């Protein structure tokens, strides 16, 4: 778990178990369609679909399917990823639009194809035909049935999370009740989490939260924690927020593009490659925080959650959250969040991107001193520790794996957590690089390091 993730985890743990909304017990499921698409994109070497946390299952998958690595559907997947950017949530959008029946794979005839992610373009039919052949030629269902015990255990272990979710909140906050159902799907082969939905031709709407596994127990089976309900809420919110982003994006596009440009590196680091995606995410993240406040989170926790999202690059989430508070206080006027969206558009369009970025950076911590200067040469191998000083109390520290690192142990040297001691074991004639990555180095208010910091040095004889 990365340092910043630890901070968010602690915040979510603080609010676990507090609730004022009716609880709906949702049973997590394992979905053959999700597993099928995950296997295909794993074979295509898509990083976001290579999750080896549950090693026994990952190894079993590779052993069974390795001989299909050059199958036509894998080749087509690589082409679509490169040409159209078919990856991440586009994959799960396809998964939930499929039907597996009588040993074959089809588009679900009850669904509207226009609900499929746009990145599939004109290749959707060709892909499904190739996928069908892969499913049949690999005898995929035999693999799926053989691993049923693992799937069942994963779902059983995830129940601790799904029991925490109050679906009534979504209907109350967004102002309408979906005609269909909520679905929780657990996956073992994909990384990241997804919140797709589909709508049937009769107007029934089904909302998904597709979660991955990142932790195992001593026996190698996946386990989950209550704090992961934050992710579950986030993914469900996508089904409500993304359509609003689509509807109002034409009115937000110009300013959203300016805002995206100012934080594009932060956005792309999180696989958010466009201004529209950023709009989806900021609406989802503000709504998720609202879920926790409405279910008993303190103002202090809410502020820290907001700052955490600012650290992720969502610079106007303060202004958006204040707008959502106005919305919640005026529900007789605004029956749905859709009714209130023109006000959110006004809030965004009145922002000045440069001012937001300057304010954000002024809140970020900096490294102000190092006991060893950058680019020092002939450093003695007798050196046993390096001191790093931050200008603000820190919640987390972290050094990325960029460059060669010495064997080291890190610990805070003072109670305020402004002095970090790095105990090192150095080898002669070696060039080292300690790269302090902003998302790993977060202060106690949730703000990341202002800029990347690199401490490079070379040892002598």
TrEMBL record:
Pfam family, one: DUF4932
Signal sequence region: 1-22
InterPro entries: DUF4932
Key words of the record: Signal
UniProt protein name: DUF4932 domain-containing protein
Originating species: Marinifilum breve
